[in-house]
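Bumping with the actual sequence this time:
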Amino acid sequence: MVRAAVLPAVGAPLEITGIELPEPGPGRVRVALAAAGVCHSDLSLSNGTMRVPVPAVLGHEGAGTVTAVGEGVTHVAPGDGVVLNWAPSCGSCHACTLGEVWLCANALNGAGAVHARRTDDGSELHPGLNVAAFAEETVVAAGCVLPVPDGIPLTDAALLGCAVLTGYGAVHHSARLREGETVAVFGAGGVGLAALQAARIAGASRIVAVDVSPQKEELARRAGATDYVVASENTAREIRALTGKQGVDAAIECVGRATTIRTAWESTRRGGRTTVVGIGGKDQQVTFNALELFRWGRTLSGCVYGNSDPARDLPVLASHVREGRLDLGALVTERITLDGIPAAFDNMIAGKGGRALVVF
């Protein structure tokens, strides 16, 4: 039996319960989790903003040790440390042939599979976003594991699987922030804190962090923020005042709310770039008039998984960690057990803290 956090139905509370995992078949890998990050996307799955088959074992940001492999798996072996990749690319769909693996049409096909069974009643469980990381152990497709780069502790490596790939990628791959440019990051949660560090690595001359909570200022400044703005109806005006009334070159929106997306867009200079990372609901409608689109010449773009290719980007991130430019531990404001995940969800709803990390 393995303990896991199960979502029994959309909108229902998580249940910490026992599950039974199958042995890894062909092309499958069994992993003992070392750590798993509690991401806002898990909350979006639980409340129905994002839809996957339920009941499901949630959790998509994790790292651990391979305990067994099925036939045909050659890139990892028992005893290897691995990072879980919740969006494995198929390599053959249209997006993959264009090199845009983060948009793979088949990346989430595994979410509909039967992953495990509850110990108490034998009912079938799905793997959430493919990897079911909120569990002591998991069994995943071989494409869902990548070797942990040398020199990265397993518990820290968990954060590479989503928060860091997303935040770093939003800055470097989507916004394409250049040295000397200015940037505003909206939301100082796990992804936002990673984006702040990425902006510092990129050599931004001014890094403005924006959040609803005044208590996150010290956390944001440690991550690289040069300025901190508590979100209000005057946020765009405050950011423009910090940049000679011009606005920032780029804005990274990590919240997923219509008002925040609109404010991020208004905070950029003429010709500026806004990257939307946050996942909002269908009810979050953002409006623009045709004249202002022409007048300001700004760019607004979505961003999936930081527009990242994990196989390409993990070694780059690891080099930043080893050379002291990227501090994975600085993203974590709470270390918890599986039983602490519901409270971590409550903290995210309340806008408290950075990344909560489940340590097994």
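The tokens above came from a reply further down the thread. The chain has eleven helices and 18 strands.
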